[in-house]
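[Automated response] Your request has been received and processed.

Submitted sequence:
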Amino acid sequence: MSINPLMPVYPRCDVRPVRGEHCHLIGEDGRRFLDFASGIAVNALGHSHEGLIGAIQRQAETLMHCSNLYGSPQGEHLSKRLVGLTFADTVFFTNSGAEAVECAIKAARAYHQHVGDEHRHELITFNNAFHGRTMGTISASSQEKMHKGFKPLLAGFSYCEFDDLAAAEAAIGPNTAGFLIEPIQGEGGIRIASDEFMVGLRALCDRHDLLLVLDEVQTGVARTGTFYAHEQFGIDPDILATAKGIGGGFPLGACLATEKAARGMEFGSHGSTYGGNPLAIAASEAVLDVVANDAFLAEVQAKGNQLRGRIEQFIGNYPEWFELVRGRGLLIGLKMKVEPRPFVAHLRDRHDLLTVSAGDNVVRILPPLVIDDSHIDEFMDKLSAGAASYDPAETA
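Generated structure:
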């Protein structure tokens, strides 16, 4: 038996994109797909945004990479910009969301060790969460399917029911360093924490000198209609992991922290060869030029409300398939009464519409943040045609 040169860890479908045009992907056979997956919430500006392309081209002509042993005028500028936009006082740049979460975990542990509470090393995480695919981030996730083949897991994590404040409080012990949570679970099915839960976690952290660590890899950078989703709960974290949309398609992540939470991250405590390279920073600057303003965020909220409203009105026609719609901004989940993966494949293969499945029988709808009414109309036409033609027996 011969193995595929591309290690076969993905169940790749037959769509083979070679080009992107705004909110569409074009396959090598010329087939055109409406992309309401956005590389799983990555391509915030779509696939051919002139500002993003121009920024990358200009930076590629001057300097793409140099070691973090040297000063970084590019990184300094972007970090100051992110500090000005957020709760944070300091930023560490990474290549991915998983690395950003790893840095957040290390920072939370380092804080307690720095202040002399070396026994406090455990983060309380939440069932059905997804934090990445590294050993640390799968250990932080309660999903057995992610653990299979990689045990023993790393110590230092305990799991708790999502959106259950009493359970979260009961889980606090002498070794607890803080909570690690997605304010809206993405892979878990666009499950939104309640205001009471998030405010309660913040209060528990303040009361017990714990750190509130947010994973906003999927929810951040305008995706939910605010720059970060936690703003909608009226709270600030101590540490936040971000990635996906922050580079608009170029690999970039970041760990944001308050001065207090970062006090254990000293010289030599962490590093990254490629993290924050000038090319990635230029891409992020171009993304922020578009999304980091009140007018754009208001548009994301308005388009999200419009899209959710139309889907909610539509699903009443097919009560046998669909249950409800949930989400914030352009992070939308369509909950089905049946397993969603065959329906996602049906939309893709028969109707040229790209979406993403998730837990809790949810179809994730994650369009580029720059969609307009024509894209919403096209999406609804394709969704309607897909529902009308769907026969689970054909995909079984």
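Summary generated for your ticket: The first strand starts at residue 17 and ends at 21. The chain has two domains: 17-48+294-395, 63-291.
If you did not submit this request, please reply to this message.
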